[in-house]
């Protein structure tokens, strides 16, 4: 499988398939949204597992569909970590392990090998999640007048309950959880916020999260999308990816993820998808059979542009809100940083600065270097790094060394440390 | 059911034209190669009368009071068209695109990227330049009182909404009313010039071709009759310049025609017209719903003497921040009483008018009405039935701190099954609290006062008393049920030890 050989071949192949009247994956496949985008009710399912593509299609649907239309879109991604629009990847994700093995080939059984995991920044808000093929993403776009944060989470809960998952409910944060308590029988089956297993006092076992939600609201559209952990083989591995060793050293604005224990529901993707589509059809009238979409949609310019944008380092890293990186957070005046605490299990790299220094990063570039104890002269040297995007630091350092710049000997260890604290996983590499 | 109010996107949008993109690096969402969604409109070539208005960040619902600016799509000087995106903001799980209601030019950004923007406060200043639709006119005129000239202070309160900040020199001095020409209107004080309003629609109809909506809007503001103005524009149209000149000319007459300036020079306190703040709007909506509930009021005195002495003993050994007020005790007492009278901890579901039903809530989520800098907020202490008094106290402290700093989340503000209004922290004796639907009861606690009373042997003793005012929904709660619950609360608080034996 070498799809990177060219989109064109894929497009041609799919055109041929359509021309010959073949069905793909049981759904009627389309190569362009032009025919369906203006319909009042639309239903799509993706046959691609490229997260950048699926998000781009979703975004196109949000931008281009008529204001009064309602759309359901289901998609599944290959293993990837997806951060929210305004999050800090260095704070949320262990980028070190994303990058460490990025040259390792994929395993046959689809298990993510350390490194073969994409990093994606989506356009909606919310926290960081791990996607893989055991997780189905559902997305509903509707007019703002009809929109509530719970409406479609409740739809998914109804679908799950019809498939026998009676522990599922919507919680206060609009996530879907599985109650873990013992059956106590007190619950209205129509109440999607309560199950017979719901424990009211804090004493009972915590519910386990199976779906998280995020929203994007524009002038006349509301998008609500969420995950659904069905049969992820990587539940044990997920926490490793979502805990960043740089966290104690970073102080940031922006939305932080709220961590929850997760579980698999234990259904097949097909059963879940079908039931969600049915629930959607029950809620709205005139829902057509779902259209299958895939890479051939890249022939639409806006989708292709959005796709390319999502894959730039600039979008992925430089959209991060302002933050500071401090080599000695315990010395910082603001005690708030101690809340994170230093994890004693994560080793400090040998090239960790001995002298406390603080880097301020804005728009993905170093804008300030501060140190209360460093000499002015050395600080001057370090300020060479100012206005450099994090992804360009390595290149800059290399060039300085190549030119025999005398400051490069001082800058090199600092650049190494920055690289360890703020790794950059090249997006292009992970595109298979 | 939580609703995101869909007015979040009455916001500003700016279309980035080529010259304004330069210094904004790579953060544009749209690239120039993507075709425009709307045809570009013509802007007027008349010189801009600086009608610059601060544009407020609209209420995005869910009780959210501030959100982070993720990305600006405009910068000062940028031309915007209606519905162009101005910026994207982020609040917890939602990222929201704010779009412009008007065509115009952005004058000022109030925040930098990554700053926290406050809901209801100015987001940008925009110079509204071209056509203003009738709805927009209404919105603009909403806050400039139907009363022209004697204008309230220009940037008086940000809460004054879309206010005209009259930067033009004529406008600033234009507080003195231009006296209407003698043949049309008799001279009268400004506050009664509302009759000019009903005339406006007629003017619109008759002279629609003589001026654009922007100019008509201006004449309304200046209280000038458009028929009086000589149009020098195309086909005899009245332009902004014409209006300006006319207004200037009018201003000179007050000094000559004394009779037509009734009360001009007297400085008077002016009425301020304020739209509702987001919190007031929330209250308005909620209380309007509560209007339909027949309130049954029950008032009682609770003897706080023994509770106060207990608290004094307990607090003697505590840090200042850990000291217990009476409130957590009251909350716990209410919860214990609700366990015995679960009907008062219910929601009344009238969504099906044929079949109203009670949903008896298992959790005691007690909302505590707090007075915050921005107004009334009711954060909810969840699961009181399983919290100790100390835990309740800590939680109230936590929520109070969040309320004061404006950081309460939607989760903190929702899900209440019962409300407690601690108006006593400010003052008051007996109150008649308003039930927050869909709840069916509410308790208002007045201030504890020292009163004289008689002891066992008839001697005069000092007693500390607070008045507890209960309201219950008389459609589903009868007097006896409310009274019994109130009695239980009273006995718990007057004999705190009795709470001890009920605690889980």
Oligomer: heterodimer
Tell me, what's the shape of chain B? elongated
Mean pLDDT of chain A: 82
The CATH topology assignment of the largest domain in chain A is BirA Bifunctional Protein, domain 2
- CATH architecture title of the largest domain in chain A: 2-Layer Sandwich
CATH structural architecture of the domain at 295-502 in chain B? 2-Layer Sandwich
Question: Main attributes?
Answer:
heterodimer, A: 432 residues, alpha+beta, BirA Bifunctional Protein, domain 2, 2 domains, 7-stranded mixed sheet, 4-stranded antiparallel sheet, 13 helices, 17% strand, globular, B: 504 residues, OB fold (Dihydrolipoamide Acetyltransferase, E2P), Dihydrolipoamide Transferase, Chloramphenicol Acetyltransferase, 8-stranded mixed sheet, 5-stranded antiparallel sheet, elongated
Question: SSE layout and pairings?
Answer:
The complex is a heterodimer of chains A (432) and B (504).
Chain A: H1 7-19, E1 28-29, E2 41-46, H2 51-64, E3 70-76, E4 80-83, H3 89-92, H4 95-100, E5 118-121, E6 129-131, E7 136-142, H5 151-162, E8 168-170, E9 176-178, E10 208-211, E11 213-217, E12 222-226, H6 238-241, E13 250-252, H7 269-283, E14 291-293, H8 301-310, H9 313-318, E15 323-326, E16 358-362, E17 365-370, H10 376-382, H11 393-402, H12 408-421, H13 427-430
Parallel strand pairs in A: 1-14, 2-3, 2-14, 4-5
Antiparallel strand pairs in A: 3-7, 4-6, 7-12, 8-9, 9-10, 11-12, 13-15, 15-16, 16-17
Helix pairs in contact in A: 2-8, 5-7, 11-12
Chain B: H1 18-21, E1 51-56, E2 66-72, E3 79-80, E4 85-91, E5 94-99, E6 104-109, E7 116-118, E8 122-128, H2 134-143, E9 165-166, H3 169-173, H4 196-207, H5 213-222, H6 240-256, H7 278-290, E10 295-303, H8 305-316, H9 326-340, E11 346-349, E12 357-360, E13 366-372, E14 375-377, E15 380-381, H10 389-404, H11 410-413, E16 418-421, E17 441-445, E18 449-454, E19 460-473, H12 479-494, H13 496-500
Parallel strand pairs in B: 13-16, 16-17
Antiparallel strand pairs in B: 1-8, 1-9, 2-4, 2-7, 3-6, 4-5, 6-8, 10-19, 11-12, 13-14, 13-15, 17-19, 18-19
Helix pairs in contact in B: 9-10, 9-12
Domain Peripheral subunit-binding (PSBD) (chain B): 210-247
Cofactor (chain B): (R)-lipoate
Domain Lipoyl-binding (chain B): 48-127
